[in-house]
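Design job #97: recover the sequence.
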């Protein structure tokens, strides 16, 4: 078992930071998102980084502790907590340690605790909710192996992006292709927004052609239904 994995390039990370989870999911063919319950512990938290994976026994955080001290700047800990809902996997102390070490964020298929403190600390943490019950520390577990986290397969070294909409995972073999598609979608959406804003301004002076702002693909799709 290797406790280390190569970081993605700074160029990849900087490109991903200019995007968001919805654009990346669209580039993945509307896939790649973890379960909808996995959300940031506080609105506005965002994370982009290289996956460092942790496999845990349900309700046990021994290997999450170890994972923190295997991580550092550039890494996002992605922990398979098996969707367990009876114990929290981390709280204030672990979050402070992870932030001090430089970890970019933590994603857990499970629950956490110390909500107020986690918000104050500001480390991007994504989980399914909160519970006061603490975890066990007996193992077993593993670090940097392929895991399934909240319905998505994650390999060490994959690209992780999280924001208010949730968390998406991009396989390291597909990163360049996905980023190119997401960047193209970003440009398309910027142009669409400009068109919509321009229409709204013109409507106020008499332009009422609603279909002038419809996306170009809509008419073609509707012809399939005889419209």
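Job complete. Output follows.
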């Amino acid at each position: 078992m290797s406790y280390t994995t190569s970081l993605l390039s700074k160029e990849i990370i900087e490109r991903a930071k200019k995007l968001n989870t919805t654009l990346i999911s669209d580039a993945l063919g509307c896939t790649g998102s973890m379960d909808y319950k996995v959300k940031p512990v506080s609105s506005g938290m965002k994370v982009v980084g290289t996956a460092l994976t942790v496999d845990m026994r349900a309700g046990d955080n021994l290997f999450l502790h170890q994972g923190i001290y295997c991580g550092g700047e550039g890494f996002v800990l992605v922990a398979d907590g098996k969707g367990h809902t009876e114990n929290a996997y981390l709280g204030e102390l672990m979050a402070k340690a992870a932030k001090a070490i430089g970890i970019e964020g933590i994603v857990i298929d499970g629950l956490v605790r110390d909500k107020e403190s986690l918000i104050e600390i500001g480390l991007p943490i994504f989980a399914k909710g909160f519970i006061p019950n603490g975890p066990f520390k007996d193992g077993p577990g593993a670090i940097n192996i392929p895991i399934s986290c909240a319905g998505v397969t994650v390999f060490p070294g994959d690209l992780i992006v999280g924001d208010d909409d949730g968390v998406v995972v991009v396989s390291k073999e597909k990163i360049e292709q996905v980023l190119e598609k997401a960047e193209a979608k970003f440009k398309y959406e910027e142009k669409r927004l400009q068109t919509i804003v321009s229409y709204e301004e013109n409507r106020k002076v008499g332009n009422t052609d609603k279909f002038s702002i419809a996306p170009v693909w809509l008419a073609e799709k509707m012809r399939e239904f005889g419209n």
